[in-house]
Amino acid sequence: MKIRVLTLFPKMFECLNESIMGRAIKRGLLDFKAVDIRNYSADKHMKCDDTPYGGGAGMVMTAQPIYDCISDIDPKHEFVRIYMSPKGERLSDKLCRSLATVDNILLLCGHYEGVDQRVLDLCIDREISIGDYVLSGGELAAMVVVDSVSRFVDGVLGSGESHEDESFSNGMLEYPQYTRPPEFMGLKVPDVLLNGNHKEIDKFRKAKSAELTEKLRPDLIGRNAETE
Ligand code: ADE
Questions:
Q1: Rounded to the nearest 5 degrees, what angle is found at the Cα of 17, between the Cα atoms of 16 and 23?
Q2: pLDDT tens digit string along 116-138?
Q3: Considering the entire predicted model, what is its pTM?
């Protein structure tokens, strides 16, 4: 999968070179690049923002550098072009799975008071939000998309890592996990996990998963993970 993030702060994305994402990039499963929009500014001072028409607080990102950047990165419109925005469709397990089937994804990160609407109208296919709160920019939201979508790309999770039992995969929260030692600060690992009986372990985990979901996220129960 090819991912291009368009941002005024490309350095913020260096953290994606760690852990599972970093491994996937090194293995060539993810072709990831953060592109600096400022390099496309036609302004002699590389300015990429201006005051909003009609007045109001803050600055708005200008259309020209973004338009030229997108035209350069994706001249034939082969990418799904996404603008990270609190106004967008809410990111969910289902949306992550569906984006993971796309070959090329472009994520545009806004900053300040947002982006000139005309460049969104001209260039953007869809808007995605990571939740009902406002971030100072789309960068953190884009990182959330890159991480959560890549996990569903074939090969990104190694053997022994799986999203099968994870929270939301079957519309439920995941069961609790334990590792060595068998007792810590007086708290014991449930016996059933130590006896090697996989049928019983499976039953225990399913019951715990149901119990946790009921307690912490009753809204998930009865909701169809495939359709929501
Ligand atoms: N940019 C600012 N806030 C955002 C949010 N909640 N989701 C996605 N992009 C954003």
A1: 110
A2: 999 999 999 999 999 999 999 99
A3: 0.94
